[in-house]
Amino acid sequence: MVDNLPEEPQSEDPSSELPELSFTQAPDFSLPFLGARSRFDYPRMGAGILVGLAILAIGVFSLTDLSAMLLPMDDTYLNVLRPTAEDGSPYAFVLNELDNQLDGRSLSVAGRMTNNSAESLEDVLAVISIEETSGRFPATLEIPVAPSPLEPGESGVFSMSVTLRQAPIRYKVQFKLQHGPFVLHTDERGPGFEFVSPGGDIELPVRLN
């Protein structure tokens, strides 16, 4: 006798119970090959060089007399830069005192001047030109006048000492603005005087101008 067994339910495909998944295509982020990147940023390097050259040029023109040599400075241009006295005369400075000491080939000069203009002037220089016995080795020195700036009506002093190849025989004093024109001055020291340099076969006067 054969027993009839209950029929087992047929198993369904498990994959049929899973939800369907959809996949979208990922965007393409590929970039074109540009080659090896240079380690130098040439545009920035060029800009830095130009800025450096500009700063150098400003410094050269400001701190040297190159601008005076390259630019045309005629009398009209210099008259615009040259200060004048309060009464309008061109004598903006006054030489109040001047003294010198001579020792062989060495000369020392000291003096006092006054700003007779209505302007506050910076970097005033006393230009001292010296001649010696041979006439072959003159010397010109630019000595700063202190204080700076020099206010209207204020006095400033200057001093220098130099040793020449030959004995000095005479010198003169002028005034100018640094990187600017010479400025005329009046001499209020009273009557000038001169003295004879000691030593040597020929005695030549040292004149105070």
What does this protein look like?
- With 209 residues, the chain is an alpha+beta fold.
- It has helices at 42-63, 66-70, 75-81, and strands spanning 91-103, 106-115, 124-132, 139-144, 155-163, 168-177, 182-187, 194-196, 205-207.
- The chain has a domain at 81-207: Immunoglobulin-like (Sandwich), CATH 2.60.40.
- 16% of the residues lie in helices and 33% in strands.
- The strands form two sheets. It has a seven-stranded mixed β-sheet, with no helix packed on it. The protein has a two-stranded antiparallel sheet with strand order 8-9.
- Strand 6 and strand 7 (182-187) form a beta hairpin.
- The N and C termini lie far apart (159 Å).
For the structure shown, list the relevant keywords.
3 helices; 209 residues; Immunoglobulin-like; 7-stranded mixed β-sheet; two-stranded antiparallel ribbon
Radius of gyration: 44 Å
Q: Percent range for helical residues?
A: 10-25%
User: Could you please say which CATH topology of the domain at 81-207 applies here?
Assistant: Immunoglobulin-like
Shape verdict:
elongated
Please provide the count of β strands. 9
Which structural class do the helices and strands define?
Answer: alpha+beta
> Termini separation (Å)?
159 Å
H and E order: HHHEEEEEEEEE
CATH architecture of the domain at 81-207: Sandwich
Could you give a short account of the major beta sheet?
7 strands, mixed
What is the residue-averaged pLDDT? Answer: 76
Low-confidence stretches: 191-205
Side-by-side strand order of the widest sheet = 4-3-6-7-1-2-5
